[in-house]
Task: inverse folding
């Protein structure tokens, strides 16, 4: 099982929002006291946060599917649902977040840096929050929105001031072990180093980090060896150190040709990077091929290697490079190398992002110029076009953030909720856009994408004439808010008593005239007969 993972595909999902509640408040002597359904809770967010204690993406390699908590539904008595818990995923410093197209979404640098990779859905509104002066008794609620779902790629790019590059078994691991407290695996066979190693070096008052990158071979930028997999770890370094093996016995190799091969691979890899990784105004660093270099001629404790180092030093210096012979075994030249690297690192830190031309840190503040009065025009809420549906044939497709969100919030099992959706679409001008597109009553309309959208037969909203049963969302039982006075109650009581006495008098008169008789007399007559 791998123990170091620096690239994973993460499937994240924000929490779903809870549905609203439809409820009517009831009290003693007040069975219909108005709506009291609460809103649903919001779904939790999925957040990436830099944690200095995390050094690898191994946990996400084993469990790539992560989801935040869902919001709970609203309840009666104005009780709101509970929000879902946020899911905070710790990542190492230097993690780059990319979407499926390779676009960089975030570059997490610095302890505590956070990025919301998937937002939770909004909770649905209850019928209490949907009530208004014109809609006093809504008998429906809105559904909670689903959380965002994304597939993102996490790439770990080691943040180090100095990167050691060279052929396999060139002495990079021995060098970092001698200069710092890092303890990488050291052996006499190629590709001993399988993962990058970090070490901290102190040279006087300067403290910097140094990274040991797995060995590079010709063709590393095309995927040969381990180079392509770990070349990303040198993108952020300020100084590149070429560790050249002067004691190699392989035919056709020498320090100069080794450095030229490594430089060719670095140049090929730099061409593969996009503008987001190479543009100084975005990264705050000079391009990869323009960063300072130091050549470390390794293994000079071997007599033949020392002679070869003296032979090639003049040629490398002529190219404008700083050349230092070093030996990790004899600890030769390590102090000179550490102080030379410290000087270059300090120069790079002084010339940080703020000093680069066009960088974001040194850029001028943006100037916001509002539109002139009278020339403002609200953009259309939705766009309508005629498309071919695989099942329904030619349909009118409605696309827009608001209409698609309103459809997700609608409970289509509730006729009043469907009517509320129709009102919202009409008020937003969607029906006007359908008329402009040539739609007529009875045509099929699709809101959303072809796969997963909502199809319905369009019937234009009728605005003439009043509804016989009252406006949508109203209850005639709640319309009468008049409270009778004592005089009105007394008058009503006397009116009822007078009506009862008039009815009794009429019955007595009908009985005297013989129009009807007492039924008990009929039972006596039947019994005697």
Result:
């Amino acid at each position: 099982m791998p123990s170091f993972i620096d690239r994973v595909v993460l499937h994240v999902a924000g929490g779903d929002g809870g549905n609203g509640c439809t409820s009517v408040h009831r009290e003693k002597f007040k069975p219909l006291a108005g709506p009291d359904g609460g809103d649903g809770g919001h779904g939790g967010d999925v957040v990436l946060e830099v944690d200095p204690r995390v050094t690898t993406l191994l946990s996400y390699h084993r469990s790539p599917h992560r989801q935040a908590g869902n919001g709970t539904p609203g309840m009666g008595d104005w009780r709101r649902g509970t929000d879902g818990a946020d899911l905070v995923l710790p990542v190492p410093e230097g993690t780059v977040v990319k979407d499926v197209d390779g676009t960089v979404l975030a570059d997490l640098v610095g302890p505590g840096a956070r990025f919301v990779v998937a937002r939770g859905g909004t909770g649905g509104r209850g019928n209490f929050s949907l009530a208004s002066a014109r809609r006093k008794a809504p008998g429906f609620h809105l559904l909670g929105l689903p959380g965002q779902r994304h597939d993102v790629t996490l790439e770990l790019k080691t943040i180090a001031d100095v990167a050691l590059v060279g052929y396999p078994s060139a002495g990079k691991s021995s060098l970092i072990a001698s200069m710092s407290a890092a303890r990488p695996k050291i052996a006499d066979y190629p590709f001993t180093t399988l993962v990058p190693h970090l070490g901290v070096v102190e040279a006087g008052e300067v403290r910097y980090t140094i990274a040991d990158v797995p060995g590079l071979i010709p063709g590393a930028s095309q995927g040969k060896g381990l180079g392509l997999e770990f070349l990303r770890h040198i993108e952020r370094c300020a100084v590149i150190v070429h560790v050249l093996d002067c004691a190699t016995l392989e035919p056709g190799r020498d320090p100069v040709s080794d450095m030229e091969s490594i430089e060719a691979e670095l140049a090929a890899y730099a061409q593969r990077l996009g503008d987001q990784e190479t543009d100084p105004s975005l990264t705050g660093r000079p391009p990869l091929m323009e960063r300072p270099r130091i050549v470390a001629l390794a293994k000079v404790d071997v007599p033949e290697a020392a002679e070869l180092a003296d032979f090639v030093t003049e040629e490398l210096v002529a190219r404008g490079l700083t050349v230092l012979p070093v030996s990790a075994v004899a600890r030769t030249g390590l102090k000179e190398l550490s102080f030379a690297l410290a000087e270059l690192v300090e120069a790079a830190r002084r010339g940080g992002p703020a000093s680069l031309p066009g960088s974001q840190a040194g850029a001028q503040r943006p100037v916001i110029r509002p539109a002139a009065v009278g020339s403002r025009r609200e953009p259309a809420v939705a766009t309508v076009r005629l498309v071919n549906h695989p099942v329904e044939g030619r349909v009118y497709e409605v696309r827009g953030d608001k209409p698609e969100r309103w459809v997700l919030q609608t409970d289509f099992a509730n006729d009043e909720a469907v009517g509320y959706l129709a009102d919202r679409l009409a008020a937003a001008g969607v029906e006007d856009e359908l008329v402009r597109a040539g739609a007529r009553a009875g045509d099929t309309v699709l809101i959303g994408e072809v796969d997963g959208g909502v199809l319905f037969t369009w019937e234009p909203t009728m605005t003439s004439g009043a509804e016989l049963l009252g406006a949508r969302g109203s209850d005639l039982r709640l319309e009468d808010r008049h409270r009778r006075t004592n005089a009105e109650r007394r008058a009503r009581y006397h009116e009822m008593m007078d009506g009862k006495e008039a009815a009794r008098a009429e019955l007595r008169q009908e009985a005297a005239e013989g129009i009807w008789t007492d039924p008990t007399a009929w039972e006596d007559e039947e019994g005697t007969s």
Q: What stands out?
A: The chain has a mean pLDDT of 80. DSSP finds 14 helices and 18 strands in the chain. The radius of gyration is 40 Å. Residues 140 and 414 are 7 Å apart (CA to CA).
